[in-house]
Write a structure and sequence with these properties.
With 315 residues, the chain is of the alpha/beta class. The protein folds into two domains: 140 residues, Rossmann fold (3-Layer(aba) Sandwich), CATH 3.40.50; 158 residues, Alpha-Beta Plaits (2-Layer Sandwich). The strands form two sheets. It has a five-stranded parallel β-sheet with strand order 2-1-3-4-5, sandwiched between helices. A four-stranded antiparallel β-sheet has the order 7-8-6-9, with helices on both faces. Helix 1 links the parallel strand 1 and strand 2. Helix 1 crosses helix 5, helix 8 packs antiparallel against helix 9 and helix 9 packs across helix 11.
Length: 315
């Protein structure tokens, strides 16, 4: 039977430090002597942040060990880009010296642990990796059980499905005797660029503002959710597709205006799609979502419309 490996990404441009960490993990495997506290390690080395980001696109890692000062990036920015690329992978930071202020900041940003290199030994390093993986597993499990997105306060995908399915069944049972119902998607297609150029705080500000805007335009009976990746969804039982599309365009114009006033370095790119619940999707939520998602690819991003409307509002 094939062994299961603990796959670790090591971002370190100092060859001596990288060799030391590799030796420490190798020594830990020997000390375990077949115990299952940690499965055998599979260490993947990267000397630059860009190399790490490319690896994270293609490989699923169990943990990341990272020196934040490498050739193409330094400090907290390195951590933020790694975290954005692998938000659900435990990230352990390696520092050259004790820094209490930076350690607190990193833990607030989501680091699972912060270690000082010269204090690292095989057993403490293994314990840090194992504990980080376990804490991360528990956090991911709780996140999956939750029905609300932590940042925006809107429903998440799980909550949207749990509430949306009986919603659609009720509307299907009542049929054409109720007002038109529609589902809409609102997607920021360049959210990654906002994070890379404006930083994590700019990205979070934008998502929080959009969450507030979505709440403001929604009625008491609308279901509004954030699915992640810049995509918001609305299920409205008393709007037609055109009405919902118009409301979402207004939200886009409002957020574009706020971004311009804030001096954002990135022009927002937004795509909107809306589809009515009915015979074409069999009154089923999953089919409805498939139709709305297909509409995102058919519709052209209207970032120029947002920019024009925002400028006219400022004037």
């Amino acid at each position: 039977m094939r062994k299961k490996y603990t796959r670790i990404l090591l971002l370190e441009d100092n060859l001596a430090d990288a060799s030391f960490l590799r030796d420490a993990l190798g020594e830990l495997e020997e000390l375990q002597n077949g115990n299952t506290w940690l499965s055998p390690f599979e260490l993947c080395d990267a000397e630059t942040l860009e190399e790490s980001l490319l690896l994270l696109k293609d490989v699923s890692f169990d943990a990341i060990l990272a020196d934040l000062w490498v050739g193409d990036s330094s400090g907290i920015a390195t951590f933020q880009r790694l975290k954005a690329a692998a938000p659900h992978t435990p990230l352990i930071v390696l520092l050259n010296a004790e820094d209490a202020t930076l350690t607190v900041r990193l833990m607030q940003e989501g680091a699972q642990d912060v270690l000082v290199k010269h204090e690292v030994d095989c057993t403490p390093l293994g314990r840090a990796i194992r504990c980080a993986m376990e804490r991360n597993r528990i956090a991911n499990g709780l996140r999956r059980m939750s029905v609300r997105d932590e940042l925006t306060g809107l429903l998440n995908f799980t909550g949207f499905l749990q509430l949306g399915e009986p919603y659609c069944r009720l509307l299907r049972r009542r049929g054409t005797t109720v007002p038109s119902a529609a589902c809409g998607y609102f997607q920021l297609t360049n959210l990654d660029a906002v994070g890379e150029l404006g930083g994590r705080h700019e990205e979070e500000w934008l998502l929080v503002e959009l969450g507030e805007a979505m709440r403001a335009f929604s009625s008491e009976v609308d279901l509004t959710a954030y699915f992640g990746g810049g995509r918001f969804a609305v299920l409205s039982p008393d709007r037609c597709g055109i009405s919902l599309h118009t409301a979402l365009r207004k939200v886009a114009s409002e957020i574009a205006l706020k971004a311009v006033a804030r001096g954002s370095a990135v022009e927002l790119q937004i795509t909107i799609s809306s589809v009515e619940l009915g015979e074409s999707n069999g009154w089923h939520l999953d089919s409805l979502l498939d139709e709305v998602e297909a509409g995102l690819w058919e519709n052209k991003p209207f970032e120029r419309v947002c920019e024009t409307e925002a400028q006219s509002l400022i004037q």
